[in-house]
User: What shape does this take?
Amino acid sequence: MPFSNTGVRPVAAVLAVVIRDDRLLLVRRANPPDQGRWGYPGGRIERGEPFRAAALRELAEETGIVADSPELIDVLDFIEADAAGTLAHHFAMIAVACRWLSGEGEAADDALETGWFTLADVAGMGSTASDKVEAIARRALGLPPAG
Assistant: This one.
């Protein structure tokens, strides 16, 4: 749905999806959009930065976790309007599976807290999780969509 020119431009960003011992790393976001909700560590891609490098950088900045082998999972649109129907946010989120190397996960930068969750935990989060968190988890784990 097209919006009038509000000055909001699409932003390319990454989500770092890390699986360790059948648990997924999530952070509770400190800032909008999705402030206070659980989601994957991530953020904006810097100018000239490849998306894979951006995923590893954002992961380290938000959690202190070191990972490698970033692989594309999916690209998702997150487009939100405010109460008046005006475009508030538009992110093209590149979900990237990353192989955990070290670190337990300490909240830093844009994260209020971190945690390792099973798929069942994620599925039960409801509105406390960002949109599409379970769908991304299922893709990263090589599972079919919930049905």
Summary: The domain at 11-140 is CATH 3.90.79.10 (Nucleoside Triphosphate Pyrophosphohydrolase). The chain has a mean pLDDT of 93. The two ends are 27 Å apart (CA to CA). The beta strands are 11-20, 23-29, 38-39, 42-44, 66-81, 87-102, 111-117.
